[in-house]
Specification:
Order of helices and strands of chain A: HHHHHHHHHH
Largest sheet of chain A: none
Oligomer: heterodimer
Number of helices of chain B: 9
CATH superfamily of chain B: P-loop containing nucleotide triphosphate hydrolases
Radius of gyration of chain A: 18 Å
Strand content of chain B: 25-35%
Number of domains of chain A: 1
Order of helices and strands of chain B: EEEHEEHEHHHEHEHEEHH
Distance between the termini of chain B: 31 Å
Helix content of chain A: over 70%
Structural class of chain B: alpha/beta
Number of domains of chain B: 1
Number of strands of chain B: 10
Distance between the termini of chain A: 29 Å
Largest sheet of chain B: 6 strands, mixed
Chain lengths: 242, 240
């Protein structure tokens, strides 16, 4: 119950910041719409390929807002107040995580609705892609909590912007990594963002080839980042109070 | 009846001793002020007693419970109004109260919230987002939130810092109403505040509690004319 209570507060804090709505929903929606108007003759920009990219790209803004909220809570001593309460570290982390999930569902529904209006064929794969994107979003939320745990509110924006850029350039949503060269391809393979797009793109198109490698990569990242986040957050809860 | 007792309490950050062999007792219902210059160790003591940080060595007993062994049950009976107001800024006053009631899983939360609204006269700002409140209202709310779980022990860390005279006096009135009902540990840099509100005052310097007594006792012991002079005298080592 404490987790839900905390998640409810976090959700209200986030959605009452108009910038979070502009960046996490309106900007990706605008990109989805505008790139379809350009009629770019490249497979990447076909709706069935670009929409999953937009979904993952929008998650990078979830990282940004989660990081800002955690950093703000720390720097305004909000977590000092809660630190004397019976709340446990896991309740904080779950509370931050759960609070963002409604936003993720809203994002997904809006993106796919607009994509269908623009010409994407509706099928069960649309629903499956939306469902699979939820566990993928955990990675972005955890990165956000991690960044917010180690930075100030201003610092969190800077560091989160790096994630936004990395998602844009290494996920393959705007261009195929193979176009840029081997070294860049290796970076894209190491980072999880291309794998995230591969999974959502694969499910939307019913193409499950090469899905295993991407899934393993994302699962490993989710586990490792979550463990690091829990350790760092717990440690910072104590060290912030020194 | 003893509310808080510390025995040989030490806190070190790396090799720096911040709190040094602290022994003191605070009685139930007492308002005990901790005074000291910046860096004297006041906030560190509050953080140790309020379970935010662990002592390097020594013992803290709160309401008969060991702070290391019974941390969770201690958390149920204490609360804090930190130095910064630390309220949820995008939430309204009412939402902040409901949120804190949820944190402590208050059973009769509606009645408790209503009681706090009355005590702090929060009616006029109830539906206002806290970020739009004045400093005085934010401080009031901060203390109000700290009372949501009916704490036996309340920590007020510089509760009137940065407030104008009127807002400060209003908060003094609230704190005075709480006196005797709750054990309060207050830190402040305002001598007038400590003198007016405290049952007893502890003066800290370099991590040690160098004097404890009522404001009158401290004035008498120092030979000074005012409480402020008495504090300066003790804090600077002018009185042996």
């Amino acid at each position: 119950m404490r987790t839900i209570n905390f998640a409810n507060r976090n959700f209200k804090e986030t959605i009452r910041d108009p910038l979070s709505i502009i960046f996490s929903i309106l900007l990706p929606l605008f990109l989805l719409f505008i790139f379809q108007q350009f009629k770019i003759p490249n497979e990447v920009y076909k709706l069935e390929n670009f929409t999953p990219g937009i979904v993952i790209f929008s998650f990078s803004f979830i990282t940004l807002f989660t990081a800002a909220l955690v950093a703000k809570d720390r720097t305004t001593s909000f977590l000092i107040r809660l630190g004397t309460s019976p709340m446990k570290s896991m309740e904080y982390i779950l509370g931050y995580t759960l609070s963002v999930l409604p936003l993720i569902v809203i994002q997904n529904m809006l993106f796919f609705t607009v994509a269908i209006i623009l010409g994407l064929n509706f099928s069960i794969n649309v629903i499956l892609t939306m469902l699979v994107s939820i566990p993928i979003s955990i990675l972005f939320i955890m990165i956000g909590i991690l960044i917010g745990s180690v930075t100030t509110e201003k610092g969190s924006s800077g560091l989160s912007s790096v994630i936004v850029q990395l998602v844009a350039f290494t996920s393959g949503m705007y261009f195929s990594a193979a176009m840029v060269g081997n070294f860049f391809q290796i970076i894209c393979d190491i980072l999880p963002f291309q794998s995230c797009v591969n999974i959502t793109k694969g499910i939307l198109n019913g193409n499950y080839q090469n899905m295993l490698n991407s899934s393993i990569t994302v699962i490993i990242y989710i586990i490792i980042v979550s463990i690091i986040t829990i350790i760092v957050f717990k440690k910072k809860m104590t060290s912030d109070n020194k | 009846m003893i509310a808080i007792e510390t025995t040989d309490l030490i806190k070190k950050f790396k090799n720096k001793v911040v709190v040094d062999s602290l022994n003191f007792k605070i009685n139930k219902g007492e308002l005990f002020s901790l005074l000291g210059v910046n860096g004297a160790g006041k906030t560190t003591i509050i953080k140790m007693i309020s379970t935010l940080i662990l002592p390097t060595s020594g013992k803290i007993v709160i309401d008969g419970k060991d702070s290391l062994k019974d941390q969770m049950s201690i958390k149920e009976i204490i609360n804090i109004s930190p130095q910064e107001t630390s309220v949820a800024l995008n939430l309204t006053v009412m939402e902040n109260l409901k949120f804190m009631a949820g944190v402590y899983q208050i059973k009769n939360s509606k009645e408790k919230i209503y009681e706090i609204i009355k005590l702090f006269n929060l009616e006029e700002v109830l539906n206002q987002k806290t970020k739009t409140l004045s400093g005085g209202w934010q401080r009031k709310l901060s203390i109000a939130l700290a009372l949501i779980n009916d704490p036996k022990i309340l920590f007020l860390d510089e509760p009137t810092l940065g407030l104008d005279v009127i807002a400060r006096k209003e908060l003094w009135q609230v704190i005075n109403e709480l006196k005797g009902k709750i054990t309060i540990i207050l830190t402040t840099h305002y001598m007038e505040e400590a003198e007016n509100l405290s049952d007893r005052v502890g003066i800290m310097a370099k991590g040690q509690l160098i004097e404890v007594g009522t404001p009158e006792e401290l004035i008498k012991r120092s030979g000074a004319k005012t409480f402020e002079d008495a504090f300066v005298s003790f804090a600077t080592g002018g009185v042996k």
